[in-house]
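Progress note, project year one: complex with NAP.
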Amino acid sequence: MTLSPDRILIIGGGHGLGFALVEECIRRFPQSEVLATYRREDFALPLLNSKATRFKIDPLNETEVEAFCRDLGQIDLFINAIGVLHDDKVQPEKSLKDISIEKLTYEFQVNAFITPLWAKYLKKKFSQSTISVFATLSAMVGSIGENEIGGWYGYRASKTALNMFIKNISIEFERSRLKTSVVAIHPGTTHTELSAPFLKGIKHKVWEPNPAANNILDVLLDCPEEGTGLFKNWDGRNIAW
Ligand SMILES: NC(=O)c1ccc[n+]([C@@H]2O[C@H](COP(=O)([O-])OP(=O)(O)OC[C@H]3O[C@@H](n4cnc5c(N)ncnc54)[C@H](OP(=O)(O)O)[C@@H]3O)[C@@H](O)[C@H]2O)c1
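Model obtained:
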């Protein structure tokens, strides 16, 4: 049961992995409708010139999210590609002395809270009769089982919280008889703005965004076969929660 989606929604589609996912969905499914949201216009110029149906939305503004989802038709594949590791508000914390309530709150808002907020308004858009996938880009560092080196308090813990949200959403969707596979996926280390300052000295492979997007799609499209409430690596293996 491989998913062949007619309608795809990618939030955080303005650049990085989100935009690569938009491009690869358009390439793989030329007959399908690909909808993409972005926040910062100046970072989303390639998206604005793409064939995707674009919407400028603040993904944390519940009023905007509700209004956008209200008239949306059925969705077969949803991917949240939003995340923050560093920006003008936060840098990954190396030690406890670096944490603050303000910064942790912001990291949790962006990395953890967006997925359940969108699930709240998208739940009705998934079908009880045809298969679908609801996915979010998580991170290996959010795995408690695989945490051996510590650090990055807010990013790690917010991705762990995101994973719990995914597990909970999977249970609620299943109880509502939706044929939706709900998945957190680690995309693999990829050259993007998010990773750029942290790539020096990395020994494992670093992907370009488009091959990484293809890895992600290969795994997600096969997830309905496996079930729901999954934490997947880009190569298809299951990651310890
Ligand atoms: N790159 C990697 O190596 C790697 C590894 C593991 C996991 N991931 C995960 O993959 C996902 C995509 O990351 P990426 O590498 O593609 O990074 P990216 O190029 O920096 O893209 C980040 C996305 O998040 C949005 N975003 C950031 N801060 C936001 C905020 N405060 N409010 C709303 N939206 C915000 C950005 O939109 P705007 O610019 O429009 O705000 C953009 O769409 C993230 O969840 C990340 O944690 C990436």
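The helical segments are 16-28, 45-48, 62-70, 101-122, 153-175, 209-226.
The beta strands are 7-11, 33-38, 53-56, 77-80, 132-137, 180-186, 230-233.
No further modelling is planned for this target in the current period.
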